[in-house]
Design brief:
Blueprint (H helix, E strand, L loop, with lengths): L6 H24 L6 H14 L3 E2 L11 E5 L18 E10 L2 E10 L5 H19 L7 H14 L10 E3 L6 E5 L17 E2 L3
Antiparallel strand pairs: 1-3, 2-3, 3-4, 5-6, 5-7
Helix pairs in contact: 1-2, 3-4
Length: about 200
C-alpha cells in the first residue's frame, strides 16, 4: 500500500535524512586503508545513537549491523566484519536512520586510494544517473520516467542496471511500496502524488 505523508511526517523524515547525511559525513572521515568495515559500523551506530536516532537497518529482518558495507563488486547489503579496506577499493556505505518512527535511507560510494580511471568513471556516472532520475520527479510524473532517466545514463556509458534490486518507498518502514526500478519506459507505471517519499537507488 502506498503511504501519503503529512507535513508533520515529512518533517520527521527530513530530520532522519539530515542525521543520515551527518552520519555519512562522520563515516567519510574514517574511510582509509586498513580500517575494517566493522569499525565503520561501530562509528555509525555510535553517531546515530548520539543524535537521538536509531539505526534503521539493525535487526531489520534479522540484519545484524547498523550499515551495509559493500566492497568492489558486492552490489548491496554487504555485512560489516573484519574485512580491511585496501588501496584501490571502492566501498558503498548504505545508511538507514530512524527518528520517532520514521526512516531515511541513503547510500554513497567512496573511492579509496589509487583507483583505475574506469572505476572512477563508473562511480561518477552512476551518481550522474542518480541525479538524472531525481530530475524527473514531480507530482504527476510516473515511476517509469525515473527508471528511464536512470537507465539512459547507464546505457550512454555502456553500463547495465541491476534489475533484481530496486529503489522503494520510505516511511514508517525503511522499505515501503512502491518499487522504483532503475529501468523503465517513459509515461508508464504508477503516477507520483504529493506526499509520497521514495528512495532512488541506481
Amino acid at each position: 500500500m502506498i503511504s501519503i505523508k503529512s507535513e508533520r511526517e515529512i518533517e520527521l523524515m527530513r530530520h532522519a535524512g539530515h542525521i543520515n547525511y551527518l552520519t555519512h559525513e562522520e563515516i567519510k572521515k574514517h574511510i582509509k586503508v586498513g580500517v575494517t568495515t566493522k569499525e565503520l559500523d561501530t562509528i555509525a551506530y555510535n553517531f546515530i545513537k548520539k543524535n537521538d536516532c536509531i539505526p534503521s537497518f539493525l535487526n531489520y529482518e534479522g540484519y545484524p549491523a547498523s550499515i551495509c558495507t559493500s566492497i568492489n563488486d558486492e552490489i548491496v547489503h554487504g555485512i560489516p566484519g573484519n574485512t580491511k579496506i585496501k588501496n584501490g577499493d571502492i566501498i558503498s556505505i548504505d545508511v538507514g536512520v530512524g527518528y520517532h518512527g520514521y526512516h531515511s535511507d541513503a547510500a554513497r560510494t567512496y573511492v579509496v586510494g589509487d583507483v583505475k580511471q574506469e572505476v572512477k568513471d563508473l562511480v561518477a556516472n552512476t551518481e550522474k544517473s542518480l541525479y538524472n532520475g531525481l530530475s524527473v520527479i514531480k507530482e504527476g510524473a510516473r515511476i517509469g520516467d525515473i527508471g528511464y532517466a536512470v537507465s539512459e545514463i547507464a546505457k550512454e556509458h555502456g553500463y547495465g542496471v541491476v534489475r533484481e534490486l530496486v529503489g522503494h518507498g520510505v516511511g514508517t518502514s525503511v522499505h515501503e511500496d512502491p518499487d522504483v526500478p532503475n529501468y523503465g519506459k517513459k509515461g508508464t507505471g504508477m503516477v507520483l502524488k504529493s506526499g509520497m517519499v521514495i528512495a532512488v537507488e541506481p
